[in-house]
Design brief:
Elements: H1 9-26, H2 32-48, H3 52-61, H4 66-83, H5 89-105, H6 113-130, H7 138-146, H8 151-170, H9 176-188, H10 190-214, H11 219-234, H12 242-245, H13 247-259, H14 266-277, H15 283-286, H16 295-310, H17 315-338, H18 351-362, H19 367-382, H20 390-406, H21 414-419, H22 423-447, H23 449-465, H24 471-485, H25 494-503, H26 509-522, H27 530-545, H28 559-578, H29 580-583, H30 587-598, H31 608-622, H32 628-649, H33 656-663, H34 677-698, H35 712-715, H36 719-731, H37 735-738, H38 753-762, H39 770-778, H40 787-813, H41 815-818, H42 823-832, H43 841-857, H44 864-895, H45 902-926, E1 927-933, E2 951-957, H46 959-966, H47 968-981, H48 987-1005, H49 1018-1035, H50 1039-1056, H51 1061-1072, H52 1076-1091, H53 1099-1112, E3 1140-1142, E4 1160-1162
Helix pairs in contact: 1-2, 1-3, 3-4, 3-5, 4-6, 5-6, 6-8, 7-8, 8-11, 10-11, 11-14, 13-14, 13-16, 14-17, 16-17, 16-18, 17-18, 17-19, 18-19, 18-20, 19-22, 20-22, 22-23, 22-24, 23-24, 23-25, 24-26, 25-26, 25-27, 26-28, 27-28, 28-31, 30-31, 31-34, 32-34, 34-40, 36-40, 36-42, 38-45, 40-43, ...
Domain Importin N-terminal: 38-105
Domain Exportin-5 C-terminal: 316-1090
Family: Belongs to the exportin family.
Length: 1163
């Protein structure tokens, strides 16, 4: 075995040829053609040669280079995986003996790890095919190998146990039948395996420390062995019974806690503890984990954290601190889920010590560690039993002092450099951390309002008194103050604090904006003395609305100044929504001030957006009026100028040509120095629609149905012109209109950068990948908007505004809107009329989401027949044709070998989103959702949210849906789309379509009699089933889709089979390739269940029927691209195992006698 001198000539020649081929393949000096030839030689030998295993063993056992030995191991592994089933028993025994000799012959402790792992893999592959049924002596042989006195063999034994556990339990890469046998064997004898590993770990750790003290070079090998043992534990502790982990009074946990103080072992030990404390399952299996709350374990964790923090910053140290934090959080999560629910679980005596340990880690500078700890503080403050414990209440004060500083955004930190690759990633993560902290501060304020408010009070006073305060402090303070004030509304010092904010003056617009946020947070204290505080607050808001920088006017204000003014306007809207009862008393004062400010002509003149935002506050407050006519008069007064302007510009809505001329797109873009007359036209049009939207958004319908919406009488005259404008906007994409565009506006209809970002984000693209996409799609982004960009913004905004208006008319005008003569035709002409094929998908999404959806929802049921059905008669076929053609183009692009460019990627994402939006619309048309309440479920299993669901949302076909399904033409278009969506290459949309079809099929199944005119014909039934089989074929590689499609297929087959037995069986045999016997067997099972009366469905029969349908479709189930050409691994079923029982455990086992043999007693 050491050389090849005594080998038969054929084997020797084959070995030499392979050695040469491997050397050539790995040589950087050879040509590509030579390397490919060498690859082909190796692959051909591996696939075809009967000497593959023999030569592989010779190469693996030779004194050649590690690459040659590794290739030999690969040859043997290939034979075991793919030829074992066909081998003669004598050949199997020969390979097994040779592999065992290979494991026992190695002595080089420094041999590459891939050689050791490859050797262990050979044993694992044989074990998966033979043990325990046909290799009863495996464990004895493994024990003998581990006791031969060589550390090298011990490491191989550990690798075998590790890879076996990974394949069987962790990755579950073994055939289910064999996995059950293997896991049964491992589970029945896990106590002995854990004892063996525990003792081995203690011995190796002790040996490492002893060798290290004397400077022995073998110390590192003992360290490596100990790490290997921990790795084996990691592959087991997540799934084995808790009994084995807690054996010997939890000595294993004690050992892991002890290893936390050792620099070499602390990270894997912490990862092992994390897996243990993160276990889920019945409460009785998780309760023993609370043993970690003993003083020794927590002291070890705290000591190790302090030691790691004191050492220089390295990635290993930092990872250990993160894992340790997760361990402590996992312990707290287990305590929160068990304490108060399990009678035997009491408050830990070391709770105060545990909280101090978590508090110590909360002080750490790392945002990642803080975010992990924040989730625990939220859980602790929420817990209805722990949040009253004095130990937790005592740490709120120091925790608040720490948490408040985490609100401050400081990116200069070494830990941030290790965690984040960009400023954007850091900012996004810090926002998430702030969200967690805000929730925790709110909960802490409920428990100790005086503590949290006192800190907020002192912080705010220090900022008000500090003349050199920085913006980051103000920003963090505003967030913290808002979190505290909303839960500490009775704080006696609140009004005084608000008054201090009102008197503070700053010329810095950024700080002034944050001061407004503080005033917003403290506004809750106005209720303490509204007569004294309300008007000063309003005055301060109005003064901020007029804030302006030196020498600035309406035309040249800086962005930060505009933001402050808009913030003040928005603040008035916010407090109007939150405290309308207070502000209604000051309505006349507010209205007079807003009227006065809107007419100012000095440098503080308000923009239209600012005036409109202030008027929105009046609309919100007017909802409190009891006099309906007062509401109508207020709306009429504000809306009248915009309505008059709308009427004046409505002639431009006659045609696309007139509209393009009105907004100036048929002329060259104006120079910066030239007055843009058409820009004013665009501004007037947008301003008018903004006023209408503000009314629709802020004004509520009267609770008296006879009165309706207060804006109805003012908006009704605008309806006709709004439809005209909507139609003109869609005509702009027609070729005739495109030819009228000035060359400078040729790209006026291109997507905005913000739209591209939004679309790509909805499509799942990460933020890091967006900048490159945007730069390639749109080129360099200019800081100042060009005339083209202003027009692009206008077209996008006016399109959205107009269709939002149309969508809101249904709710606002009510039956008056839906009773309009010719409404259905007008809506159909606007949404899907002539020229629809030119409308971009992204704009069509807007139509579906903001117009069609509310239009259908708001329609009274008695008008469905006269409005909704005629509209759907135009809309359904148009959308089917549109999306079907888009998907055909998308699938053609996917079949092309050329790499898709970014524009194609964007189009692909848009068509998926458009399909999703349309499916959601059909869901509204077809289904109605009802909530069914159920009895409380058994809360044995751990629930991440701490409660079990007591209700279930059930979908069924609505009355509108039944009407649509009863119309043959509408039903045909609807089904054609939903059935096509089952197999279009979008797994998410396929699931959504399957859910709708499930309710439809259930509705068909409930039709009596079955020969009703509404029941599908044989052709429709065959169409449904054939499309479903296409879905299984094209998307069956996704487990969720396959499960949903199988479920839907069983429903379809059960519904159609009794009526069309011959057609259904023939279709299954033709399209799915199932046998006649399986088709007949399914029909027999279905008949048996039907004969039972259907009152009590036999769950076992239903399950067997579902499995039979799965079997009938097995031949056509889609596969992942990576699996298409993968050679199947052979795992033959072995004889059925008898019951396995653990052998009686001796009272004491010496390490020298500790083995893995005789673990099984088969009966």
């Amino acid at each position: 075995m050491e050389g090849q001198g005594n080998l038969p000539p054929q084997i020797s020649a084959e070995a030499e040829q392979l050695i040469h081929a491997v050397d050539v393949a790995l040589s950087p000096a050879v040509s590509t053609e030579e390397r490919n030839q060498a690859y082909n030689v190796c692959e051909r030998f591996k696939e075809e040669s009967p000497l593959c295993a023999i030569v592989g063993l010779q190469l693996a056992a030779s004194a050649r280079s590690p690459t040659i030995k590794h290739f030999g191991l690969q040859l043997v592994e290939h034979c075991i995986k793919f030829r074992w089933k066909d081998m003669h028993p004598q050949e199997k025994l020969s390979i097994k003996d040779s592999v065992w000799k290979l494991m026992g012959s190695g002595t080089d402790m420094n041999e590459p790890s891939y050689i050791k792992d490859g050797t262990a893999r050979l044993v694992v592959e044989m074990v998966k095919r033979e043990w325990p049924q046909q290799w009863p002596n495996f464990l004895q042989e493994l024990t003998d190998l581990s006791q031969c006195g060589k550390e090298y063999q011990t490491e191989l034994v550990l690798l075998v146990l590790l890879r076996l556990a990974e394949d069987v339990a962790v990755f579950q890469s073994v055939d289910p039948v064999r996995r059950r046998d293997l896991q049964q064997g491992l589970t029945a004898n896990m106590a002995e395996i854990f004892d063996f590993l525990s003792r081995l770990l203690r011995v190796q750790v002790t040996a490492y420390h002893e060798r290290k003290l004397i400077g022995s070079p073998t110390a590192q090998f003992h360290c490596r062995l100990a790490l290997s043992v921990i790795a084996v534990f990691q592959s087991h502790v997540e799934w084995v019974s808790i009994i084995h982990i807690m054996a010997h009074e939890g000595q294993l946990l004690v050992l892991f806690c002890t290893l936390l103080s050792d620099e070499n072992f602390r990270l894997p030990a912490a990862e092992c503890l994390l897996q243990i404390v993160s276990r889920k399952g019945p409460a009785k299996e998780r309760t023993p984990l609370l043993i970690l709350f003993n003083q020794g374990a927590i002291a070890s964790m705290l000591e190790s954290a302090q030691l790691a923090s004191a050492q220089p910053l390295t990635e290993v140290n930092y990872n250990f601190l993160k894992r340790l934090t997760e361990v402590l959080v996992g312990m707290g999560t287990q305590l929160c889920s068990l304490y108060g629910k399990e009678p035997e679980v009491t408050k830990p005596d070391t709770l105060a010590m545990y909280l101090q340990a978590v508090l110590a880690l909360t002080r750490h500078q790392s945002l990642s560690i803080n975010q992990t700890a924040a989730t625990l503080w939220v859980a602790l403050f929420k817990h209805d039993r722990l949040n009253i414990e004095p130990e937790l209440l005592a740490v709120i004060e120091p925790w608040i002092a720490i948490a408040a500083r985490k609100f401050v955004k400081t990116s200069v930190c070494a830990y941030n450099a290790m965690d984040f690759d960009s400023d954007e990633e850091f900012t996004a993560f810090h926002q998430r951390l702030r969200s967690e902290l805000i929730e925790a501060v709110r909960l802490a304020t409920v428990l100790a309002p005086s503590v949290t408010f006192s800190y907020a009070h002192q912080w705010l006073l220090s900022q008000l008194d500090n003349t050199n305060s920085i913006l980051a402090e103000w920003e963090a303070l505003a967030l913290f103050l808002d979190a505290v004030a909303c839960k500490a509304k009775e704080a006696p010092a609140g009004p005084q604090l608000l008054e201090r904010c009102l008197t503070y003056q700053s010329s810095d617009p950024s700080i002034l904006s944050e001061l407004l946020s503080c005033i917003s947070a403290l506004f809750v204290y106005v209720q303490h003395d509204p007569q004294r505080l309300l008007q000063p607050v309003l005055n301060r808001i109005f003064s901020s609305v007029l804030f302006s920088g030196p020498g600035q006017s309406k035309e040249n204000r800086t962005k930060i100044v505009r933001n402050v003014r808009r913030h003040a306007c928005s603040l008035l809207v916010k407090i109007s929504m939150q405290h309308p009862g207070l502000l209604v008393q000051q309505f006349e004062y507010l209205k007079s001030n807003i009227d006065r400010l809107s007419k100012t002509q000095d440098d503080s003149q308000l923009s239209r957006m600012e005036v409109l935002t202030l008027q929105e506050a009046l609309f919100v407050i007017s909802n409190q009026f009891t006099d309906f006519q007062m509401k109508c008069d207020l709306i009429g007064e504000i809306i009248r100028p915009a309505a008059q302007q709308w009427t004046a510009i409505s002639p431009a809505f006659n045609s696309a040509k007139e509209f393009l001329s009105f907004i100036g797109l048929d002329r060259p873009p104006p120079e910066p120095s030239v007055e843009d007359v058409h820009g004013r036209n665009r501004s007037e049009l947008l301003a008018s629609t903004s006023v209408f939207l503000a009314v629709l958004k802020r004004c509520r319908t009267s609770i008296d149905p006879l009165k309706g919406h207060p804006a109805a009488q003012h908006l009704a005259p605008l309806l006709f012109d709004t439809f005209r404008l909507a139609r003109v906007l869609h005509q702009l994409w027609e070729p005739e209109a495109q030819t009228l565009l000035s060359p400078g506006y040729a790209k006026a209809h291109d997507l905005l950068e913000s739209e591209i970002v939004n679309i790509l984000a909805q499509g799942g693209m990460s933020q890091s990948g967006m900048p490159a996409c945007i730069s390639q799609l749109n080129g360099n982004v200019q800081k100042q908007q060009s005339p083209l960009e202003r027009v692009q913004n206008f077209l996008a905004q006016i399109h959205n505004n107009v269709f939002v208006m149309l969508g809101s008319f249904g709710e606002t005008l009510g039956e008056q809107f839906y009773a309009t003569p010719g409404l259905a035709v007008a809506v159909a002409g606007t949404t899907c009329g002539h020229g629809m094929e030119y409308i971009p998908d992204c704009r069509l999404r807007t139509v579906v989401k903001v117009f069609c959806r509310p239009f259908i929802i708001s329609c009274p049921a008695h008008l469905h027949q006269s409005v909704i059905l005629p509209f759907l008669a135009h809309f359904l076929p148009a959308m089917l044709q549109r999306l079907a053609s888009r998907w055909q183009q998308t699938m053609q692009q996917q079949r092309d070998e050329n790499q898709a460019n970014l524009q194609e990627i964007l189009c692909d994402v848009i068509v998926r989103l458009a399909t999703r939006d349309y499916i959601e619309l059909l869901k509204i048309v077809i289904l109605t959702m009802t909530t069914q309440f159920q009895g409380e479920e058994n809360d044995e299993m751990m629930d991440a949210e701490g409660s079990s669901s007591a209700s279930q949302v059930v979908a069924s076909v609505s009355e509108l849906g039944k009407t649509v399904l009863s119309e043959p033409s509408l039903c045909g278009y609807l089904l054609q789309f939903l059935l096509s969506a089952l197999w279009w290459p979008d797994s998410g949309n396929s699931l959504k379509a399957a859910n709708i079809l499930e309710s439809i099929v259930k509705y068909w199944a409930g039709l009596l009699p079955r020969n009703s005119a509404h029941f599908p014909s044989s052709e429709v039934a065959c169409l449904c089933l054939s499309h479903l089989l296409n879905g299984i074929q094209l998307l069956g590689q996704h487990d969720a889709n396959l499960s949903a499609l199988i479920h839907l297929g069983v429903l379809m087959y059960d519904t159609f089979l009794p009526i069309y037995p011959a057609a259904m069986s023939e279709l299954m045999m033709r399209n799915a390739g199932c046998s006649r016997e399986d088709a007949d067997q399914y029909q027999d099972k279905a008949s048996s269940l039907a004969a039972g009366g259907g009152q009590k469905i036999n769950q076992k029969m239903e399950r067997s029927k579902r499995e039979l349908f799965r079997k009938m479709t097995t031949q056509i189930v889609g596969q992942h691209l990576a699996d298409l050409f993968r050679k199947p691994v052979q795992l033959a079923s072995l004889p059925k195992m008898g019951s396995l029982k653990p052998r009686p455990k001796p009272d004491a086992i010496n390490l020298a006698d500790a083995g893995l043999a005789d673990l099984f007693i088969q009966e």
